[in-house]
């Protein structure tokens, strides 16, 4: 059985690392074998836990990505080929090495390592401290976007390589990629698709961390819409640094009033998701004991490790496609059809959905966005026959 996977994201500076660490330490305190890992290059988790990577408490392991070692294992043949071609073109070894470092490698490698940890059978709970919102969305969209390109380009690429390899070697005087390079690309692609399958499965969900501020709340709403667009379940919202009521200080009273209003707005915006509140603490929680106490206050009587109760955001039946887009504005949602693909745009984000055969043969008979759900109906007849 897959472990329970919890991903934490939010706007930079809202305390997502603290929320992730508190959840992980709470899981370990309940006897669950817990792994906590970060896809954020800042590596703030080790600072929050005040420890070095490894077993940081009974049942709690902190993992820090070794980008170089893992990159060589997953990406080695492709990188070696690119480095060799650049050297043949006259670039020195250091320059070739720098050019062939994969952009965003650390975040991608963290996802590939996450898949390996999930398949190991060692863990009951895996907590992921994600990068800030924009980077997280790009990262989570990557596997499916890469799948779209690879499925179209790789078969063509294999045929093209066989045709042009003699010309490349004879005229351009550089090496053409061999079968091992193409296979490495396929393995890399397959690994990322397995990551997506894990993170959109029944044991995985995302938790949005925010502070009760207008700008932060607006971004969290957009993030919820975007995560649903890409097929990721969100099972809760964490409101951090909330001033407790009381006190005669006018400055504090104004903050309490503003936060109370924004928390009510958040509960309305994210309903039916629970909004867990973390009070503004008198001191920064550092270390496993302090973080466990935060986790207990954060979740109260609820079970933070139960599987997500909500259905997957994307659902298909014999004649309809339904996609949850909570908070989406009708003016920002666009729908287009291209062959057997449906292109859904929500604000600045776009997803290309490959339709199953049963729906791909039919025309769209109608589409409506109502109560946060995009419903696309398909006519009974096939496209060719209608």
Descriptive account of the structure:
- The chain has 386 residues and is of the alpha/beta class.
- It folds into 2 domains: 1-304, Rossmann fold; 314-382, Sandwich (Immunoglobulin-like).
- Helices cover 46% and strands 24% of the residues.
- It has an 8-stranded mixed sheet with strand order 3-4-2-5-1-6-7-8, with helices on both faces. The chain has a 4-stranded antiparallel sheet with strand order 9-10-15-14. The protein has a 3-stranded antiparallel sheet with strand order 11-12-13.
- Strand 7 (234-242), helix 9 (250-270) and strand 8 form a beta-alpha-beta unit.
- Helix 3 runs antiparallel to helix 7, helix 6 (133-172) crosses helix 8 and helix 8 (214-229) packs parallel to helix 9 (250-270).
- It is globular and about 65 Å long.
- The relative contact order is 0.13.
- The model is unreliable at 84-102 and 155-179 (pLDDT under 50).
- Its EC number is 7.3.2.7.
Features:
single chain, Rossmann fold, four-stranded antiparallel sheet, 386 residues
Quick rundown:
This protein has helices spanning 16-29, 44-49, 67-88, 93-99, 105-119, 133-172, 179-199, 214-229, 250-270, 288-299, 357-360, and strands spanning 4-10, 34-38, 54-57, 60-63, 125-129, 204-210, 234-242, 275-279, 314-316, 320-324, 333-338, 341-346, 349-354, 362-370, 373-382.
């Amino acid at each position: 059985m897959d472990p329970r996977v919890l991903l934490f994201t939010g706007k930079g500076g809202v305390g997502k690392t603290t929320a992730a660490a508190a959840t992980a330490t709470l899981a370990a305190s309940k006897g669950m074998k817990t792994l906590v890992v970060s896809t954020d290059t800042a590596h703030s988790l080790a600072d929050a836990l005040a420890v070095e990577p490894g077993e940081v408490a009974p049942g709690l392991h902190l993992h820090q990505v070794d980008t170089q070692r893992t990159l060589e294992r997953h990406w080695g043949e492709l990188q070696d080929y690119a480095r060799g071609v650049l050297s043949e073109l006259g670039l020195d070894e250091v320059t070739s090495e720098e050019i062939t470092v994969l952009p965003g490698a650390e975040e991608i490698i963290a996802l590939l390592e996450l898949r390996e940890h999930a398949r190991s059978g060692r863990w009951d709970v895996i907590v992921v401290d994600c990068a800030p919102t924009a980077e997280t969305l790009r990262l989570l969209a990557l596997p499916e976007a890469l799948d779209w390109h690879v499925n179209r380009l790789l078969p063509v690429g294999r045929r093209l390589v066989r045709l042009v390899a003699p010309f490349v070697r004879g005229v351009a005087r550089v090496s053409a990629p061999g079968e091992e390079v193409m296979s490495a690309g396929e393995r890399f692609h397959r690994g990322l698709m397995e990551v997506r399958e894990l993170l959109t499965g029944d044991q995985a969900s995302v938790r949005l961390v925010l502070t009760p501020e207008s700008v932060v709340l607006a971004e969290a709403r957009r993030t919820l819409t975007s995560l649903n667009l890409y097929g990721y379940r969100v099972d809760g919202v964490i409101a951090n640094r909330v001033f407790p009521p009381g006190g005669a200080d006018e400055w504090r009273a104004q903050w309490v009033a503003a936060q109370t209003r924004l928390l009510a707005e958040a509960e309305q915006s994210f309903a039916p998701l629970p909004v867990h509140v973390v009070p503004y603490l008198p001191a920064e929680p550092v270390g496993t004991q302090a973080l466990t106490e935060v986790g207990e206050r954060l979740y109260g009587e609820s079970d933070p490790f139960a599987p997500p109760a909500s259905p997957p955001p994307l659902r298909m039946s014999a004649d309809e496609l339904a996609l949850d887009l909570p908070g989406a504005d009708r003016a920002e949602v666009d729908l287009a059809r291209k062959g057997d693909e449906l292109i859904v745009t929500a604000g600045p984000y776009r997803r290309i959905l490959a339709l199953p055969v049963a729906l791909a043969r039919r025309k769209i008979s109608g589409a409506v966005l109502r109560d946060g759900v995009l419903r696309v109906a398909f006519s009974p007849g096939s496209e060719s026959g209608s």
